[in-house]
Amino acid sequence: MLHEHIGLRYNTLRLPPDVAGADAEGYAFSEQDDIFFAANMFLNWGDLCNNVKTYVDKCKTALNLDRSTATMDEIKQFMQRISQTKNLTNSVAKHTTVTTHLSHVIKERGLLQLSLLEQDMVASHNAGDHWNRLLTLLQQAEVTSRDKVRLCVLYYLRYEMASGGDAMPRVQAVLNDLMAAGHTPILQRVRDYYTPLGRPTDDLFADTGVLSSIVKTFVDVGNIYTQHEPVLKRTLLQTLTGTLEGREGNAYSCPYSSANPPTFGFKPTEVMVFMCGGYTYEEAALVHGINQKTVYKPNDLTQMAPNAHVVLGGDRILNSNIFMDALMEGM
């Protein structure tokens, strides 16, 4: 959320100059140097806010020393904790300032409503309902031009194949009406991006068959704002279990020569993924969860090599603005 809605550069976040109490030099976010960030960097928004409140209460407790009644031992202990207490108060000030500003951004731009539609589009198939909700959001003044363009692009990706090509003219007309300066050709750029290489956009979204709808009716999807799962999750599952299909439609076999080749696909213990064009923090969180054995089901884990580990890299860390700008520049 920090990178998507504010922007991180070299692990440094700079708030707008009009934010009260903000550090002009910015805030560094590193899991090596920031204990609170390391413990909460992959949490959802609701859990993060709760933990920030707990963090503030911890700071209040640490500073609660009544010097008029304190014993000498208490004063001595407090003096010994001054450096740690100062670090704690600085960290609390940093995270409360950033969280407060992020909360303001979410309310000001109506991001909860936007996110709900985005998650619903990627997790379910209902073209008519999604189109009507999209048009409603596009008329709301608090929704920024960038957010409107992102919603239009997502709808186009979701329904272009299913509509037989009818989605593009409708969405393009909406973009023209919005007068989204500089973004009217973006749908064609999106098409140019995935069509020549045969990228199947259907793989970007959840299953939409009848069985899938029945399952979703009876299975709790958890947090409705975190329904989206990166395609990388499925790709890595197939890689780690030795079932990833090659270009010829066959599973990759063990790359090492052997007099007695295994009858199953090669199951690597170390996987290095390099995302040409960049990766997102959502994908980084996914890889972290895979390495912590919290992403896949127990049955899937038994099909992998023991101690399998994934490393993720790329030439940049993306957010929606960076990706759309790259599309407009021809990648």
TrEMBL record:
Entry's Gene Ontology BP terms: vesicle-mediated transport
Family that this chain belongs to: Belongs to the STXBP/unc-18/SEC1 family.
Protein name: Vacuolar protein sorting-associated protein 45
Organism: Strigomonas culicis
